[in-house]
């Protein structure tokens, strides 16, 4: 039984080698082909309940990406990060912070817990 399995495995392996030789003899070469990348997106979040305010926009064409994101820091400053990537230059960013006039951080909501007296019951047998 194992001899039959070994024979089939060798036959499959030989067929794979023959198919690969034929593929390369026909002038085909394995190359990675990538379509040019092109996209744009943007979003903004402004949640009054949690105080979460942030957003981002980005665009890319081929090997060049540029974008910006912002958020409101806990100390009331708006932080904006502008960035770009051009080919193999890596991620290059500039950070800008500015105070927001009249900013008040969201106040944590305090939930009052009502204390209810517990009645103790004593049972006698």
From TrEMBL:
It comes from Culex pipiens pipiens. This is Pupal cuticle protein. Keywords: Cuticle, Signal. Pfam families: Chitin_bind_4. One of its GO terms (molecular function) is structural constituent of cuticle. It comes from the Eukaryota. Residues 1-20 form the signal peptide.
